[in-house]
Design a protein that fits this description.
Blueprint: H1 2-15, H2 26-85, E1 99-102, H3 120-131, E2 141-144, H4 154-158, H5 161-168, H6 171-174, H7 183-192, E3 195-201, E4 213-220, E5 227-233, E6 242-247, E7 254-260, E8 267-268, H8 269-302, E9 306-309, E10 312-315, H9 319-326, E11 337-341, E12 355-359, E13 368-372, H10 398-402, H11 415-430, H12 432-446, H13 460-467, H14 473-477, H15 498-507, H16 532-537
Parallel strand pairs: 3-11, 11-13
Antiparallel strand pairs: 1-2, 1-8, 3-7, 4-5, 5-6, 6-7, 9-10, 12-13
The protein binds a DNA duplex through strand 4.
Length: about 550
DNA sequence: CGTTTTTGACCTGCGC
DNA sequence: GCGCAGGTCAAAAACG
């Protein structure tokens, strides 16, 4: 910092033509002194800022270490308690891990009635976990396999259990049809229902996301000769989560998987990767739709804005284009849909980091948002989403260079994790609503989750300060996950749970958790060029 | 024999 | 009201 200040002085001196010692005029001398004085004061300011930043960095490191210690303590508690009381029947994921993570699509996880009868010990332990701030805003919890999820927040306890199932899936199905008592809830549910569409190149019939699915229907949809398969989550009997799998008509190697609903049960760790991804995406979508539907979306719709952040370029595309790209086979999406395009993008984006596009259709009833994480490199997949092969280090990503100043250790094994976190970084930096969601998550994690639902703009400044802390989402959200290669669903399906692979690299190596975290300081308001006003103006 | 998949029928929402 | 399309149900078949 101080060196940069000296450089600034020199630069200014050059600007004023003061580098020559032959200037001898008194007025020029005065000017020179004036400039030097101002430069000195500027240097002082820079030093002050440098000192503040150092203090902030120290505090962040302390917080990070304390969080890590608490996390490890909880892990040890769980393992020890499991060893002492482990007599429960083994679940089919016992091969993987005893930890289950419940993730919710940005909403309160709904619980079946029977799970309200969870034991007091489970609740007490859960309270411990809540106190340990392991609950993200995305409702990620680490639980033992023998535990069931109880309502973790007062807001959830207020909810009627009868309404819970209907909140996450069409109430007309979960709740008996023709039941007028639930019409209002149905409307709310419909308004809040979000779909996360994942496009990935996959030759197998379906991609493995860690969950257990049962096919309950198949239909030929209009405009696509490839049938659309309907799957239902069978991890829990009452889980409302469903997914649709369909191949792209234009490129049958592309598998389009649409997730809908919220898991109301603990997830196998192998499923948390996809769940966390879809959770974040859906949360972003829901958060964005809540504002866009009030008129803000029209602004975004009309724009093809591009912002740059530290060399990262993000662009917003209009919906027509996005629709052509992401919804070639269907009419306007009936529900708010966010698309994670993890395929090779035929369009040449100016950013080497893929494309993030958020768009809202004027024809669709609900907004549609697209996240394109595709590589511009032909026939390449992000190493985190592939055919089950984690090609760490086989492909170079330019964004890693951007982080070299921040990441002292740039191991190849951490490359995929960087991809994930970079993806999140881009998404957060590009979309204020996503920032809000993530900020809420962090806020709940740091501040004890007391105000998890408060995502208004007044608190955004505080949240952005939270971003300045060294929190590694890739590790936090998928901690203790590992590869799901052992979870092959009858030998078919893509082992595309990319995030498991990367998280396995972190979980298996405990020391990796001590790696420098992502520079979330880029989200500080000072360095955030893409603030709300700019987006809303455009 | 239990679970999963298949597939035709049925239901619902929407546009005309 | 009718037709269409998407989504779901449920019985039968297939599978392990």
């Amino acid at each position: 910092m101080s060196s940069s200040g000296a450089a600034a002085i020199e630069e200014r001196a050059v600007q004023f033509g003061l580098t020559s010692r032959e200037d001898s005029g008194s007025s020029q001398e005065a000017k020179k002194e004036e400039v030097i004085e101002s430069a000195k004061s500027e240097t002082g300011d820079v030093r002050e800022e440098n000192h503040r930043l150092k203090m902030m960095l120290e505090r962040i490191e302390k917080d990070y270490q304390s969080l890590q210690l608490r996390f490890f303590d909880i892990l040890q508690q769980e393992t020890s308690s499991k060893q002492s009381t482990d007599s429960a029947p083994s679940h089919d994921e016992t091969e993987e891990s005893n930890e289950l993570v419940s993730l919710c699509l940005g909403r309160s996880p709904s619980e079946p009635k029977k799970e309200d009868k969870s034991t007091n010990s489970a609740k007490s332990r859960e309270n411990e976990e809540l106190k340990a701030n392991l609950t993200l805003g995305l409702d990620s919890k680490i639980l033992t396999s023998t535990e069931t999820v109880s309502n973790p927040s007062p807001a959830e306890s207020v909810e009627e259990p009868k309404e819970e199932a209907g909140e996450t899936w069409p109430p007309s199905k979960v709740i008996p049809k023709r039941n007028g008592d639930h019409d209002e809830a149905a409307q709310q549910s419909q308004a809040k229902r979000a779909r996360v569409c994942v496009r990935v190149r996959c030759e197998t019939p379906t991609m493995i996301d860690g969950c257990q699915w049962r096919k309950y229907g198949q239909k030929i949809s209009k405009g696509n000769p490839c049938p659309r398969a309907y799957y239902r989550c069978t991890v829990a009997p009452l889980c409302p989560v469903r997914k649709q799998v369909q191949r792209c008509a234009e490129d049958t190697s592309i598998l389009i998987t649409t997730y809908e609903g919220t898991h109301n049960h603990p997830l196998p760790v192998s499923a948390t990767a996809m769940a966390s991804t879809t959770s974040a995406a859906a949360s972003m979508l829901l958060s964005g739709s809540s504002t866009s539907q009030e008129g803000l979306g029209s602004h975004i719709n009309a724009t093809s804005a591009r912002t740059e952040l530290n060399g990262l370029s993000f662009s917003l595309h209009d919906h027509l284009r996005a629709k052509q790209i992401y919804f070639p086979n269907s009419s306007s999406p009936a529900f708010p849909t966010i698309t994670l395009d993890l395929t090779t993008s035929p369009s040449t984006s100016t950013t080497p980091f893929g494309r993030f596009s958020s768009s809202f259709s004027s024809t669709s009833r609900y907004p549609s948002t697209s996240l394109n994480f595709s590589s511009t490199e032909p026939n390449s997949l992000p190493p985190i989403w592939g055919n089950g092969l984690h090609n760490y280090g086989t492909r170079s990503y330019n964004h890693q260079q951007l982080y070299q100043s921040f990441m002292e250790k740039n191991h190849q094994a951490a490359a995929s994790q960087q991809v994930l976190t970079d993806t999140l970084t881009k998404a957060i930096a590009s979309d204020p609503s996503f920032r809000t969601v993530i900020a809420t998550a962090i806020s709940s994690m740091i501040g004890g989750g007391g105000s998890a639902n408060a995502n208004n703009r007044n608190q955004r400044a505080g949240y952005q300060n939270c971003f300045g802390q060294n929190l590694n989402f890739g590790e936090t959200m998928t901690t203790s996950a590992f590869s799901i290669n052992s979870l092959s669903q009858n030998g078919k399906g893509c082992a595309s749970s990319c995030f498991n692979g990367l998280s396995s690299s972190t979980s298996q190596k405990g020391s990796s958790q001590l790696q420098p975290a992502l520079p979330f300081s880029v989200f500080n308001s000072a360095s955030m060029p893409n603030n709300d006003n700019e987006e809303h103006k455009s």
